[in-house]
Write a structure and sequence with these properties.
By secondary structure, the chain is of the alpha/beta class. The chain has helices at residues 70-80, 105-114, 136-139, 162-166, 221-230, 262-274, 291-302, 382-399, 405-413, 434-438; strands spanning 2-6, 19-20, 23-24, 33-40, 48-49, 55-64, 83-88, 94-98, 118-125, 171-181, 205-207, 245-252, 279-282, 284-285, 306-310, 333-339, 358-361, 365-368, 376-380, 417-418, 430-431, 443-446, 454-458, 464-470, 477-483, 489-493, 503-509. The radius of gyration is 27 Å and the shape is elongated. Bound molecules: calcium ion (CA) (2 copies).
Length: 511
């Protein structure tokens, strides 16, 4: 038997207004990741763990062989001068063993194995809390959409798994994200360091009403969306964006009342495209289909630019009553609905099984606000859901610089957490998960019930995995190295499969 170890035109016609989407509540790359999928042959997958590389140098874990003479093991410790400092009686007598003076962890593990008394002996690997920034509104639990532990009546893990994603990557400092909105307060304490600067005029963007680079915020909405996607992380101030470091380009297409038209939107799309933005965040919508806007977005698509659009706040099925730009049928548009802290679809969020792609946190989201340089505000809307996705897209582009917009978007859409509340409400039926997008879990799944032993290694697209084999769970040797397909997997057949001795497999991949 073998085993897998793994484990929104301002015109005379009010019907065509673009409106912002929020309701103010005024009121490392680590060098190697190791996944062990604990999975008996033909049994369902059970668990995934990620052991780190470092271990304690003063103790190990020792699993006694079942049925051995306890006195013999005590005698072994006496002779070795090792000390049992803890025993787990419910775990087959698993021991925490203090090393003899002068002994190394590998050396002592070898002696334990040679004794014939142990099932296994292994290093006591160190574990670490996931990387967490020091921004106060994050540490106090306000930003539930990033990390939800059930605070304030929420549901634990109804979030995008941001801290786990940040273990992989926090910075997209080379990625320019255009915020198509009311402008951004450039001087805000939590935004200033993450503003894009035009090398030609020193400005931070474009104002489609004045035709100048005076793209500050006179309404507030754009500063809110900017903070969600790219507020400075770990600076000891305010909030943290999904991307801690990023270059935000302010493209003002909405006026001091939050209104604009297709003409201002097109001017901003064109500015962003010709000034090297890689992502556009459009937290706005309109009821009017515009061939000109569609063409502008298509031009951006041909330049590989990802266009993230909020689905809108009409509590409507946009498949039946379309909103634009979310419903233009172009493959670079990612349309975003809003979820709550209990992983429900937010009551005012639009939805659509065909035209909405995924959801992201959008209820009671605290972000930067334009009133002064240290003001923060809690709001709700698909306007603040969309920038969660834009921030994630920035990190994805930073991690996978050679990939196309289709590949990047597929990674994010394939990495959602399916939710009952979203079934039939959007293409993926899920809420974004940053960790799964940045580092898809590695899964080993048996393919057939007879020998030779065959299994599938799934690890996300284009990822190199090293399969290792062992007969004793202690010493492992490389058996096979392969890169997953664009679909995210490869199959392996163990040509040497036998039922005895048992052979165990595990997969190792870069994060
Ligand atoms: Ca979580
Ligand atoms: Ca901050």
């Amino acid at each position: 038997m073998e085993f897998l170890l793994a484990a929104m035109k301002t015109s005379c016609d009010q019907r065509f207004k673009i409106r912002p989407h929020f309701f103010p509540m005024m009121a490392r790359w680590l060098p190697v990741g190791l996944w062990l999928l604990a999975l008996a042959h033909l049994a369902p997958a059970a668990q995934v763990t990620t052991p780190p590389a470092e271990y304690r140098d003063d103790q190990i874990l020792l699993q006694p062989k079942a049925g051995i003479n306890a006195a013999a093991l005590q005698a072994f410790h006496y002779v070795q001068k090792s000390a049992v400092i803890g025993t787990f009686v419910n775990l087959g007598g698993l021991e925490i063993v203090r090393l003899p003076a002068g002994e190394t962890v590998p050396g002592f593990i070898a002696k334990c194995e040679q004794s014939g008394l142990v099932e296994f002996a292994e290093p006591d690997y160190l574990i670490h809390a996931a990387l967490a920034p020091n921004d106060p509104q994050y540490t106090n639990g306000t930003l539930w959409g990033l990390n939800n532990t059930g605070q304030s009546g929420g549901t634990a893990d109804a979030d995008i798994d941001a801290p786990e994603g940040w273990d992989v990557l926090t910075s997209a400092s080379n990625i320019v994200v255009a915020v198509l909105d009311t402008g951004i307060r450039f001087t805000h304490e939590d935004l200033a360091t993450n503003m894009w600067t035009n090398p030609n005029d020193g400005g931070h963007g474009f104002n489609a009403f004045s035709g100048t680079n005076n793209a500050g915020d006179d309404q507030g909405h754009g500063t809110l969306t900017a903070g969600v996607l790219g507020a400075a992380g770990n600076n000891g101030k305010g909030i943290v964006g999904v991307a801690w470091r990023v270059q935000m380009m302010s493209c003002k297409c909405l006026d001091a009342n939050g209104n604009g038209s297709d003409a201002t939107l097109i001017a901003c799309i064109d500015y962003a495209r010709t000034n090297c933005a890689r992502i556009m965040n459009a937290s706005l919508d309109s009821a009017g289909y515009s061939s000109a806007v569609s063409n502008a977005i298509y031009a951006a698509r041909n330049d590989g630019i990802i266009f993230v659009a909020s689905a809108g706040n009409n509590a409507a099925d946009v498949d039946a009553v379309p909103r634009y730009p979310a419903c233009y049928n172009i493959d670079n548009i990612v349309s975003v609905a809003a979820t709550t802290r209990t992983d429900a679809l937010w009551g005012s969020s639009n939805f659509g099984a065909t035209n909405v792609d995924l959801a992201a946190p959008g209820r009671d989201i605290t972000s930067t606000f334009f009133i002064n340089d240290s003001f923060y505000l809690s709001v709700s809307g698909t306007s603040v859901a969309a920038p969660h996705v834009s921030g994630a897209m920035a990190l994805m582009l930073a991690k996978y610089p050679a990939e196309t917009h289709q590949q990047i978007i597929a990674r994010v859409l394939n990495a959602t957490d399916p939710l009952p509340a979203l079934t039939g409400k959007c293409v993926t039926g899920g809420r974004m998960n940053l960790r799964k997008a940045l580092s898809p879990p590695v899964q080993l799944t048996p393919l057939a019930g007879s020998l030779p032993f065959q299994f599938r290694v799934a690890a996300g697209p284009n990822r190199t995995c090293i399969l290792e084999v062992s007969t004793n769970l202690t010493s492992w040797s490389p058996a096979f190295t392969n890169t997953t397909s664009a679909a995210g997997w490869f199959d392996y057949t163990d040509a040497a499969s036998t039922n005895s001795p048992r052979r165990f497999f595990r997969a190792i991949s870069a994060l």
